[in-house]
Design brief:
Largest sheet: none
Oligomer: single chain
Structural class: mainly alpha
Distance between the termini: 87 Å
Radius of gyration: 32 Å
Order of helices and strands: HHHHHH
Shape: rod-shaped
Number of strands: 0
Number of helices: 6
Length: about 210
C-alpha cells in the first residue's frame, strides 16, 4: 500500500504542468517524509526488540536476587541459549543456591537484629550496608555467570567456560562464608549487649526498686 502511494505521487509529479511546481515540490517532500517514516519505524522496531531482550535479562537476574529461582527458566530458555557442554555443570546450580542463601540469611539477620533492639540506628545502618554490598557483588557474579554460560556471548572454549564458572563459584562461596562469620559475630555482640542491658536493669531494680526501671 505504501509503495502504491509513493508510485502514485511520483506519477502525479511527472505529469504536472510547470505552473504547479510548488505543489510538486511539496509532494516530493511528502514522498521523502514517507520514506523517512518507514525508516524511523524500522529503527523503533529494532529498539523495541532490543529493549525486550534487555528487559527479559534484567527480569531473570531480578528473579534470582529475590529468591524466585528456576534453573530451567533462567539458563535453559531461548533467551540465554546455554552452551550444552556446560549447562549441566553442578557448580552452576550451587552458585544460584549461594545467591538464594545470601538473600535468605540477609533478610533473617536484618529482622533478628531489629527485633533484639540492642543496636542503635547507626549500627543497624552499618550492618545493613555490609549485607547490601555483599548482595550487590553477588549480583555482579550472576551477571558474569549468565555471560559465561550463554552460547555465542563470549568467545570461550568449554574448558575456559568451566574455569570461569569455578572462579565465580569460589567468589560466591567466599561471600556466603563471610556473611555467616559476620552474622555470627554480630549475634554474639548482640547477645552480650542484651545481657549487659539486663544486668543494668537488675541493678537498678535492686538499688531503686521497680521505680528504677
Amino acid at each position: 500500500m505504501k509503495k502504491f502511494i509513493i508510485l502514485s505521487a511520483l506519477f502525479i509529479v511527472c505529469t504536472m504542468p510547470v505552473s504547479l511546481k510548488a505543489q510538486s515540490y511539496e509532494l516530493q517532500q511528502l514522498i521523502l517524509n514517507l520514506e523517512k517514516l518507514d525508516q524511523f519505524r524500522a529503527i523503533l522496531d529494532q529498539m523495541q526488540k532490543g529493549y525486550q531482550v534487555i528487559a527479559k535479562g534484567y527480569s531473570a537476574v531480578k528473579d534470582l536476587t529475590e529468591g524466585n529461582f528456576s534453573l530451567h527458566k533462567i539458563f535453559l530458555d531461548k533467551l540465554l541459549e546455554v552452551n550444552p557442554t556446560v549447562k549441566q555443570y553442578k557448580k552452576i546450580k550451587d552458585i544460584i543456591t549461594f545467591q538464594k542463601n545470601l538473600i535468605k540469611e540477609f533478610s533473617a539477620g536484618k529482622t533478628y537484629f531489629k527485633k533484639l533492639d540492642v543496636f542503635n540506628s547507626i549500627e543497624l545502618e552499618y550492618l545493613e550496608s555490609v549485607y547490601q554490598n555483599l548482595i550487590s557483588e553477588s549480583i555482579n557474579n550472576l551477571d558474569e555467570l549468565i555471560m559465561v554460560v550463554t552460547a555465542r556471548r563470549l568467545r570461550m572454549s568449554d574448558a575456559e567456560r568451566l574455569n570461569a564458572i569455578d572462579k565465580i563459584y569460589q567468589e560466591m562461596e567466599d561471600k556466603i562464608n563471610f556473611l555467616r562469620q559476620f552474622t555470627d559475630q554480630a549475634i554474639l555482640m548482640a547477645k552480650q549487649r542484651a545481657h549487659e542491658m539486663e544486668e543494668t536493669r537488675a541493678l537498678k531494680k535492686w538499688y531503686f526498686g521497680p521505680e528504677g526501671d
